[in-house]
Amino acid sequence: MKLSKTIILVIATFFIYLSCTEKEPEPKGTPEYIAEIQQWHQKRIERLKKDTGWLNLVGLYWLKEGENTFGSSEENDINFPDNSPPKIGTIILKDSSLTFKSADGVDVLNNDVKVTDLELKDDLTGKRTTLALGSLRWYIIKRGERYGIRLRDVESPILKEFKAIDIYPINEDWRIEATFEPYDPPKQILIPNILGTTEEDNSPGALSFTKDGRSYKLDAIESSHGFFIIFADETSGKETYGAGRFLYTDRPDSNNKVILDFNISYNPPCVFTKYATCPLPPKQNYLHLKITAGEKMWGELH
């Protein structure tokens, strides 16, 4: 009996050892393709760590109609972090007009020039006004009918802590040729967002593809260089972000073919910060398919 228990213990230990030493699958594809995807992911890390990246967001404050005072003092309408002056100034929202007025003795800069009174342009105008004070940078965002201050700290500790994002092993099998099926006229689709609201967007068509003998479709959104796709799949909420991932593609070729390369599917900014306002996948873009390619979840799974 003792011998039997010993054998069982040895076998169990052996299998535990195997499971702990099991190696992740090697990348699959041509050396050129693997190098291309590795380079894409490296540039992705670099973009996240830039001053304009998502890692340095430290605040999002929605404005009320009228005067909105802000600074580190609790006496303000909006409380900035402790590394800012007690009162920085006031942002006045009147209908859709926004004006910044600086507090006395505070050096707020716009394009490296001190400003005391300035009309502000939001991020959807294409002429966004950015203000700076020390390591802080802020500007106005517009979401639906709401206006808010998006705040960055270019010396945020997370910039030093952040190293990389886990990704699935690169696999050229997930570089899939899809057929573009245009909608005539373009279809209005509902895009929910993390704020709990829904907006309509135009979809020029669907991207139809097959994987392992089954057919799938994704509604695409027009982007400046091609299509933007928000999708969720059977890894969502388990190995990848629960609210889906993003993917860009080129425009269709002369045969209406589009390459869906899921190896470059990536996390929305809401994975890295609670101060982003991310769109979520439309319900038709939830795929009954386990897409083991692209970025995995970063940080605490949610």
Task: Give structural attributes.
Tumour Suppressor Smad4; 302 residues; 17 strands; six-stranded antiparallel β-sheet; mainly beta; 3 helices
Task: Please render the helix and strand layout as text.
Elements: H1 2-21, H2 31-49, E1 57-62, E2 66-71, E3 78-79, E4 89-94, E5 97-102, E6 109-110, E7 113-114, E8 117-119, E9 130-133, E10 136-143, E11 146-153, H3 158-161, E12 175-192, E13 198-211, E14 214-222, E15 226-231, E16 245-250, E17 257-261
Parallel strand pairs: 2-3
Antiparallel strand pairs: 1-11, 2-4, 4-5, 5-8, 6-7, 9-10, 10-11, 12-13, 12-17, 13-14, 14-15, 15-16
Low-confidence spans: pLDDT under 50, at least 5 residues? 17-21
Number of strands: 17
Distance between the termini: 48 Å
The share of residues in extended strands comes to 35-45%
Strand arrangement within the widest β-sheet reads 16-15-14-13-12-17
Structural class: mainly beta
Name the helicity range: 10-25%
Written account of the structure:
With 302 residues, the protein is mainly beta. The chain has helices at 2-21, 31-49, 158-161, and strands spanning 57-62, 66-71, 78-79, 89-94, 97-102, 109-110, 113-114, 117-119, 130-133, 136-143, 146-153, 175-192, 198-211, 214-222, 226-231, 245-250, 257-261.
Quick synopsis:
This protein is mainly β and 302 residues long. It contains three helices and 17 strands.
